[in-house]
Write a structure and sequence with these properties.
By secondary structure, this protein is mainly α. It has a domain at 206-272. Helices cover 67% and strands 3% of the residues. The protein is built from 14 helices and 2 strands, in the order αββααααααααααααα. The chain has helices at 2-33, 52-55, 74-77, 93-101, 105-118, 123-136, 139-152, 157-169, 173-186, 191-203, 207-220, 225-237, 246-258, 261-271, and strands at residues 38-41, 47-50. Helix 8 runs parallel beside helix 10 (191-203), helix 9 (173-186) packs antiparallel against helix 10 and helix 13 (246-258) runs antiparallel to helix 14. The longest helix has 32 residues, at 2-33. The chain is rod-shaped and about 170 Å long. It starts with a helix and ends with a helix. Mean pLDDT is 78; it is low at 48-57, 72-78 and 264-272.
């Protein structure tokens, strides 16, 4: 009987130790789950202590953009590309030239301007743009494009002549004389080149030298009474001839120079 009592006491003691161990294990587990604290870094670089539950909390995912239409996400709706404006149809030479011939010089400037944008190496386009600008009163624009026409085509006589005229109006008679001389050399029979050269020479004060080109201009075109008057004025300014009638001065000069009183007389008659 005594041995049975001893065995019972031992069993009870073992059970109590097991129960105490289980209770201790539960306490340790609760402490571990209840908030072991550790530092966590903020976005600004500082730290704070958070519990394990907070540290293990899932990170929030960014919100997905809501679609604004059946096939168009909001992300792309703000960056949609606008349709391009239709290009203007190319300008034809005919419509630009028609504007010039009809005296619509502002419109001609616009049309020939668009023409040379597409054909920047065509001297004719620059020449007509310069001529339109000159007729429209845009002297600086006229100078730029007439100059461009002779740079592209140095033998462009009309470009040289009209560039010289524009330069005279801009007060650049020395430069005008240079271009007019080149034009006269390129085409010795070109009457406007001779008259423009004479005008440039007169602007430079060389009235006596201006007589020669004007006399040749009258000789080449006896129907132009203006040339005869210009010649008479140049002669008078150079101190050649007597009287105040510039036509008479010119006529006498031509008769003496070439012995052509009939041609000179016809010119004077037509002028009167």
């Amino acid at each position: 009987m005594e041995s049975r009592g001893i065995e019972r006491n031992r069993s009870e003691t073992v059970l109590r130790w097991i129960a105490a161990g289980l209770a201790l294990a539960v306490l340790l587990l609760a402490a571990a789950c209840g908030g072991e604290n550790r530092p966590a870094e903020r976005a600004d670089g500082s730290t704070e202590v958070i519990g394990m539950a907070a540290a293990q909390a899932p990170t929030a995912r960014p919100a997905i953009p809501v679609e604004t239409g059946p096939m168009a996400p909001a992300t792309y709706a703000a960056t949609s590309v606008l349709p391009l404006e239709p290009e203007e149809p190319p300008v034809t030479w005919g419509e630009a030239e028609a504007a010039f011939l009809e005296g619509r010089y502002g419109e001609a400037v616009d049309l020939f301007g668009r023409y040379v944008e597409r054909r920047p190496t065509d001297p004719r386009g620059h020449y007509m743009l310069g001529l339109s600008a000159w007729k429209g009163g845009y002297l600086d624009l006229a100078e730029a494009h007439l100059m461009e026409s002779v740079l592209i085509d140095p033998d462009h006589v009309r470009g040289r002549v009209n560039l010289a005229r524009v330069l005279i109006e801009l007060g650049q008679s020395a430069a005008a004389e240079g271009h007019a001389r080149i034009a006269e050399e390129l085409d010795p029979a070109d009457v406007p080149a001779k008259r423009t050269l004479a005008r440039a020479l007169a602007e430079n004060g060389d009235h006596e030298e201006a007589v020669g080109p004007l006399a040749l201009a009258v000789r080449l075109d006896t129907t132009n009474a203006t040339f005869l008057n210009n010649l008479g004025s140049a002669l008078a300014n150079a101190g050649i001839g007597d009287g105040v009638d510039t036509d008479a001065i010119a006529q006498a000069y031509l008769e003496e120079l070439w012995g052509c009183p009939g041609e000179a007389a016809d010119t004077v008659a037509r002028r009167r």
